Amino acid sequence: MGAVTETPAWRRELARPRGADVFRVLAIGMVAAFHFWQQTWIGGGRLDYLLRTGCAWVDGMILLSAFCLWLPHGLDAAEGRPFAGCAGFWRRRLVRLVPGYWLATLVGGAANAVQQGLDAHLVKDVLAHLLLIPTLFPESYIWARTNGALWTVGVLVQFYLLFPLLARAFRARPALTFLGLCAVQAGYTAWALGLEDWRYSFAFNQLPAFAGVLALGFAAALAVAQLGCRVRGRGRWGFSALAVGGLWAAARVLRCMNDMGDIQHAQLIWRMPLIGCLTLALIGLCLGVRLPGGRLWAFLSGISFQYYMWHQWLAVQLKYHLRLPPWQGDTPPNQLGNTAWMWRYFALILAVSLAAAVLLTYGVERPAAARLRRLLGLERFKTGQIPQNTCK
Fold it and tell me: What is the rounded distance in angstroms from the CA atom of residue 109 to the CA atom of residue 380?
């Protein structure tokens, strides 16, 4: 090992690239925009198709997860360092996810038990979520009564179980691993498209359908790590242009998905073209000119997990169970064309979702994670000094 030196500036910047925060806020914001559109019926005019296809940005969230998890290994590769392994990885993921996720599950289950009654369906739904396997059962996935947004965590947990193996494989044989993952997704997609009714809804967002997405996330991390130490000055503007171009191309793909009518089938058919465009955008955001407002992006990114888990559930609770803003009768005001109510409702669910995200991030997620880290002995897994870098 070479002489120990201070961490290079380019690596400090890429250890948590601002572009990844921007991408996370954009992806979760578009998913929320889709869910809010479903409840408010507030359209987007000529850009209405972006709201109607906002659910597809879940794919971008999974892309970003693979990118962020493999980026440290990519940075090691850029410096010529050996594979560092994944010691403590599963425990760190457990600490990060479980406290807030279990709270959302239990609150959602309790509320549904009060509103609809406790039965075998709800018990199975809650238990599957608590065991982190909601996507394995229709009752806890496509017919979930706890919280419809939590299925994504189930997919991510399956990915986390495989990550140490995939991370090592991609470091050793990136091209072969990339092609293998893409082949898995292609084969699974061909099979899933032949399913009908609820069986397709159950299958199209399972982990094998995202194997190629994971591959592109790893590839994006490798590209950012390899190029990050070389990008200077005007070169950043070229990557900013790449980000804009990738987002523009992604919007074109989303337009094609919208035109198909059946968004669920369109999402699977167009998944890889969409993720290809978003991969370019992610690389461009990370290597391009740094957008202003770094602390704001970091803050919004930091609360995004809680925001994602709660925003849809809160919107439904406020509208149908608390009836806020106040409304009477059997038909919600948005279905009667009451635009004033629609905008008041949108402002309310946006404010409540953001407030809940802040409260739960700083009041539950982070304190619980700190305590679990101490209990599980995770303090020893800290980043030390970096050996003399070979990327100049």
Answer: 36
> Collapsing DSSP states into helix, strand and coil, what is residue 386?
strand
CA dihedral (191, 193, 195, 198) in degrees, to 10, reads 130
**Helical axes 271-287 vs 235-260, angle rounded to 10°:** 160
Q: What is the pLDDT of residues 97-146, one digit of tens each?
A: 999 999 999 999 999 999 999 999 999 999 999 999 999 999 999 999 99
Question: Two tokens at 238?
Answer: 């070229």
Helix (H, G, I), strand (E, B) or coil at 5: strand
Residue type at 381 in one-letter notation: F
Q: Are 281 and 23 in contact (CB under 8 A)?
A: yes
| 259, burial (CB in 10 Å: exposed 0-12, middle 13-18, buried 19+) | exposed
Q: What is the spatial distance between Cα 38 and Cα 198, in angstroms, rounded to a whole number?
A: 20
Across residues 313-330, what is the average pLDDT?
A: 97
SS3 184: helix
The position carrying tokens 């849809």 is 312
d(CA 296, CA 236) in angstroms, rounded, equals: 21
Closest CA to 219 of 60, 19, 66: 66
